[in-house]
UniProtKB/TrEMBL annotation:
Entry superkingdom: Bacteria
Organism: Moheibacter stercoris
Matches recorded under InterPro entries: Curli_assmbl/transp-comp_CsgG, OMP/PagP_B-barrel
UniProt name for this protein: Curli production assembly/transport component CsgG
A matching Pfam family: CsgG
Keyword set, alphabetical order: Cell membrane, Lipoprotein, Membrane, Palmitate, Signal
Length: 436
């Protein structure tokens, strides 16, 4: 397969991370701190998950010390010195001394300068790599045409501590975590277009966040936190002209800590809280009527809603809209619907959550001779993704069941009329997300 046109096959400079860019906002240090890193390792002992059998590749990159040293350099606050492969350095210095002694003409050997020693040793590592913290998906198929989406979240956790070489005292310990998101989208068609002629097509895309980038972002965040907490504890100082910058960053960091303290552990992602109390939404729908005519077809429609979330997991809402329903050849009309529903959010503290809803309502044939409202009930479910705290993208399916057999102006058979609805829309949230 030919790669997409936007894929650059040449070698490039390593991509920056969001936390790495935060280093640019740090104030200048009064004096850079010399630090040594002997071993910053993978302490999880985990291998990559595989559905095809054993996999001996590790889940976490093994060059963590190199990533940490690069992060220390980028921060401009530390001078890292070589300690991971100190044996190689000492051997090379010994070779230099021996060579100078053997080939010195006047037996005067210039001594090597002394090695720098570290006032602080940095230790720690990646202590957790949790797979399948959250998984899910959704799909639909109609007459051989359909699509599906799947997603998975993993989590990586990093601990970093600073140790004084004079006393062995642990000066500061910080830890960070980073979510690794993977998702796949597939669409396919499988149907007969003529006698003994089968048409089949499939397309899909999968996006996996590189583990290396996630680890780098978590380590950068740990170094950033270590610098700020060190300033707060007076382990090191900023230049006097940079005090205002340091104070501003400390206030932002304290606000972040307060926000984290209010969040709930064990309810999915460490997000900013559940959705705001009031919201309104619009959606485009496609409807298939199951009535008394044999040939059914999909018709368009639209629906709007106003919601009130009265608890973490539950909200109630009123919906109203116009739906076009009918058969392929015999009948077609526009219907007004009015609904009152109760909705259950499976993961209210996540940006990505499944939901289920159900309720009762009325349906009216706007173009038919009988414009009296007909009672119905509805139930269904879907997925919502918060693209921002104020906007949610929703995909859903709803089954509308009637108690009358004349929606399509024909009374026949034993079953009452009903229709199946699928939709895609936006939900607009008003106000800040609720912190619990």
């Amino acid at each position: 397969m030919i790669p997409p046109a936007n894929v650059d096959l040449k070698s490039n400079v390593g991509e920056p991370t969001a936390t790495g860019l935060d280093f640019r906002n740090l104030p200048k240090p009064k004096e850079e701190v010399i630090v040594g890193v002997y071993k910053f390792r993978d302490q999880t002992g985990q291998y990559k998950a595989s559905e095809m059998g054993s996999n001996w590749s590790t889940a976490v990159p093994q060059g963590l010390t190199t990533i940490l040293i690069k992060s220390l350099e980028d921060s401009k606050w530390f001078i890292p010195i070589e300690r991971e492969n100190i044996g190689n350095l000492l051997n090379e210095r010994q070779i230099i001394r021996t060579t100078r002694q053997e080939y010195s003409q006047n037996n005067q050997v210039t001594p090597l300068p002394p090695l720098l020693f570290a006032g602080i040793i940095l230790e720690g590592g990646v202590i957790s790599y949790d797979t399948n913290v959250l998984t899910g998906g959704a799909g639909a198929r109609y007459f051989g045409i359909g699509g599906s989406t799947q997603y998975r979240q993993d989590r990586i956790t990093v601990y970093l501590r600073a140790v004084s070489t004079n006393s062995g005292k642990i000066l500061k310990t910080v830890y960070t975590s980073k979510t690794i998101l993977s998702h796949a989208i597939n669409a396919s068609m499988f149907r007969y277009v003529d006698f003994e002629r089968l048409m089949e097509a499939e397309v899909g895309i999968t996006n996996n966040e590189p583990v290396h980038m996630a680890v780098t972002e978590a380590i950068n965040k740990a170094v950033y936190m270590l610098i700020l907490e060190g300033i707060q504890s007076k382990l090191w100082e900023t230049e006097s002209s940079e005090m205002a910058v340091a104070d501003s960053l400390m206030k932002q960091y304290e606000q972040e800590i307060k926000l984290i303290d209010k969040q709930v552990v064990g309810k999915g992602e460490w997000e900013k809280g559940r959705r705001s109390t009031l919201s309104a939404g619009l959606a485009m729908t496609f409807n298939t009527m199951k009535g008394d005519f044999a040939s059914s077809t999909m018709r368009p429609g639209g629906i709007g809603n106003v919601k009130y979330q009265f608890a973490d997991y539950f909200n109630t809402y009123l919906a109203f809209g116009y739906q076009e329903l009918g058969s392929k050849e015999n009948y077609r009309s526009t219907y007004s619907i009015y609904e009152a529903n109760l909705e259950y959010l499976v993961l209210p503290y996540n940006n990505f959550t499944p939901f289920f809803h159900g309720g009762a309502g009325l349906i009216t044939d706007s173009n038919g001779p009988d414009k009296n409202p007909k009672f119905k009930v509805q139930f269904g479910g879907g997925l919502e993704y918060l693209a921002s705290p104020a906007i949610g993208v929703r995909a859903f399916g709803t089954y509308h069941m009637g108690f009358d057999d004349d929606w399509d102006q024909l009374v026949s058979g034993k079953r009452d009329d009903h229709f199946l609805q699928v939709g895609l829309g936006l939900q607009f949230y008003f106000g800040k997300r609720q912190i619990k």
